[in-house]
Amino acid sequence: QVQLVESGGGLVQPGGSLRLSCVASGFTFRTYAMIWFRQAPGKERELVAGITNAGTNTNYPDSVKGRFTISRDNAKNTVYLQMNSLQPEDTAVYYCNAKSLWNLAGNWDSGYGYWGQGTQVTVSS
């Protein structure tokens, strides 16, 4: 059974930091690109970070570039999202997504692949 389990979310003040983790099982993690998405109430799903299977390339939108860092540890089947300088606009449920090369096909934003259940991040005073 494929499983992606996110953790590390919570309540943080503006300017603070959080580190999210996603532990994968049930598939060959090292062959999959890993992507973090987020979705706030009433808003569309948004890509926040992606990393290729070997960790050689990363992908960030301008909204988080310089603040968020994605990394992976293939020996631990885990992908991380380090989030610094958090702002209220970062409040959302953060989801972990795994895409094979075939699923990825140059399209980081698609809904294909495996998905976790999400972890809530709330940035508020």
Describe this structure in words.
The N and C termini lie far apart (40 Å). The protein has one helix at 101-104; strands at residues 3-7, 10-12, 18-25, 33-39, 46-51, 58-59, 68-73, 78-83, 92-99, 114-115, 119-123. It contains 1 helix and 11 strands; from the N terminus they run E-E-E-E-E-E-E-E-E-H-E-E. The mean pLDDT is 97. The strands form 2 sheets. Strands 2, 4, 5, 6, 9, 10 and 11 form a 7-stranded mixed β-sheet that branches. A 4-stranded antiparallel β-sheet has the order 1-3-8-7, with no helix packed on it. The protein is 3% helix and 46% strand. The protein is mainly beta.
Which features would summarize this protein structure in a list?
125 residues; mainly beta
Explain the layout of strands and helices.
Elements: E1 3-7, E2 10-12, E3 18-25, E4 33-39, E5 46-51, E6 58-59, E7 68-73, E8 78-83, E9 92-99, H1 101-104, E10 114-115, E11 119-123
Parallel strand pairs: 2-11
Antiparallel strand pairs: 1-3, 3-8, 4-5, 4-9, 5-6, 7-8, 9-10, 9-11
